[in-house]
Amino acid sequence: MAVRSSLASINEVTADEWDALFAESQPFLTHAFLSSLEDSGSVSAATGWQPAHQVLRADDGGLLAAAPSYIKSHSCGEYVFDSGWADACYRAGIAYYPKLLTGIPFSPVTGARFGGAVADQQALQVAVSEWLGAEPLSSWHINFTSTEQSPWLAQAPTLLAREGVQFHWHNPGWRDLQDYLDALRASKRKKFRREMEVVQRAGIGYDCLAGHELSEAQWDFVYTCYSNTYHERGQLPYLTRAFFSLLAERLPHAIRVLIASRGHTPVAMAFYLVDAERLFGRYWGAVERIDSLHFDACFYQGMQLAMREGVMHFDAGAQGEHKLLRGFRPVITHSWHQLKHPGLRQAVADFVGNEAHQVRAYAHDAEAHLPYRQDSEA
C-alpha cells in the first residue's frame, strides 16, 4: 500500500529520484533548482517557507509521486494573492497561517505541480487532502498548475478553482525581430523601434552568458542589480546571493544572463531560464536608470533570445499590461484551494466564482489591445 509522507528538505531524496518524476518538466521543478533555494537559505522556516514536500512511496520505499510543497507563515512570494482571505480570517478570529502551499517559491510559472504517473499523482492529492484534516493548517493551495493537471484537479471535490491572467509571447514562426516588427501596426512599430534606438544611442551593448560562463564578480553584479529592484520598492530581496552561485553550479545549462554595458561598464542585467519549449524571464535590475532599457533588455532582447534558442514561447513573468502592449497575449492561469473552515470555504467559493467571470472578461477585452496588424499571422 502506498504511503504519503512529508520531506523536511528536498535533500532527503536524491536528484535522480526526484527528477525522474518530473522528467519532462521545466528548470523550476528540478532538484537542482529546489535544492539551491533551500541550501542558500532563501527558503527555510526562518523565511516563512518551511519545506514540506509531499511524497507518495511504494511498499518498498520507492518514490511514486511528489509535489514541491511548503508550510507558509505568510503569503509573500506566491503571486496568487490571498491576503484578503487572510485579513477576513483575522477579523473573524480564524487562524489563516500556517497553510500548505504546493508550488515553486518566488516563481509565478505555470507547470506540473505533481510528478509521477497520473494515477499516483491523483493518489497523492487525495492523501494530502486527507492528511490536511488532522494537521494545524488552515488550507492547501496549489498554484499555477499545468494544462495537463488542471482537468483532473477540477474533479477533486475538496478543491476550489481560481483563475488569473498572465501575458505570454508566442512566436508563430518569425525568424528574427524584424519579422516581429513587421507584424505590428505602424504606430506600435514606430514606438518600439524608438525605444530600441534610445537604448542604442545611450551606448548600450549586450552580452548573453550561460550559467557556467559568469565569474563570481559577474554574479556579484547580477545580485546587486537583482537586490536594487527590491530595495527601490522598500523591500528585501527574496533570494540570497548564494542562490545564484549554487544554481550556476547545479543548473548551468538552463541559465542565460543578459548583461547590459556602456562601454566596459555593466549597468543592468536580465536573468532568464530556458528549457526545450520555453524561455522564462525571471529577474531584472540596474545600477543606473537609462530610458527604455528595461523594455529592451526584458522584452525585445528576450524575444531575440527565444528565437536564438529555438523556443516558441516566452514567459516574461507575472502581471504587467506593458507586456500586452508589446504583443504578449493574455493567458488564463489556474490554482486550486482547499479550505478547512466551512464558513471560509463558502466565502472563498463565492469570491472565486465571481472573480472568474471578471478574469475571463478582462482577458477577452485585453486581446483588443494587442499591437498586431489584423492581417498578420500573430
From TrEMBL:
Pfam families per the UniProt record, alphabetical: FemAB_like
Q: Supply the InterPro entries for this chain.
A: Acyl_CoA_acyltransferase, FemAB-like
Q: Which SUPFAM superfamilies match?
A: Acyl-CoA N-acyltransferases (Nat)
The protein's matches in PANTHER family, at most eight in alphabetical order, are given as:
ACYL-COA
* Protein's name according to its UniProt entry: N-acyltransferase
Q: What is the species listed in this Swiss-Prot or TrEMBL entry?
A: Paraperlucidibaca baekdonensis
